[in-house]
Specification:
With 222 residues, the chain is of the alpha/beta class. It has two domains: 2-45; 51-220, ABC-type transport auxiliary lipoprotein component (Rossmann fold), CATH 3.40.50. The protein is 37% helix and 28% strand. The chain has four helices and eight strands; from the N terminus they run ααββββαββββα. The chain has helices spanning 2-27, 30-45, 114-130, 197-220, and strands spanning 51-53, 77-83, 92-96, 102-110, 134-136, 147-159, 163-174, 182-191. A five-stranded mixed beta sheet has the order 5-2-6-7-8, covered by helices on one side. A three-stranded mixed beta sheet has the order 1-4-3, covered by helices on one side. The longest helix is centred in the N-terminal third of the chain and has 26 residues, at 2-27.
Length: 222
Amino acid sequence: MTDDFGNRRSTAISTARRAAASRALRTLPPMAAFAATLALLGACSSTPPTRYYALESVAASQSSTPLPGAGKASATIAVRTVSLPAAVDRPQFVVRAGEARVSLDEFNRWAGPLRDEIARVVAGNLAADLGAPVVTVSAALPSASDLVVLLDVQRFDAKTGEGVDVDVVWIVRRGIDDAPARSGRSVVREPSGGAGYEALVAAYNRALARVSRDVGAAVRAY
């Protein structure tokens, strides 16, 4: 009986409040009532704007050594991201919220598929560093490429206000013969140096530049 009475009382209060608000709007001048209605609708429907972020290439080193044969039109390098942790392989920006918890931000997103963004940035870094044409691919590797770079991203974590952790296992192999491949692993921790997503994106750019430098050294060894 007590709960039923409380529910009826709460319903009656809500109905009375709506009726009072309706009477108040009716007593306002037409323009004032219209403005008040818009304000109420805006308060209920407003959402933060969605922001999009893109990774950017950074020259892997200040002094580049051209790749042998880079002057030939056919000398190319193909870069592909073959794996990315499922937790971050999504449009939303993902940040660490604890040791075992992550947070997905619906209003801060990557401008394109993250695995393609990573491959594009590494390709840009290699092109600047080696002086050779570099292409990125998301499916089948082009058979005409002189060298192929495969990126297996083991970790791509960010923590707001702290920095990023990037762990990439990479393989460099010839695309035109069966010469032994070269492989390595780049583990990078890069501080963000500031707050916000822009600082985290900049830290990711610097971390991928360091990965690119390691890959470039293996490319030169061929």
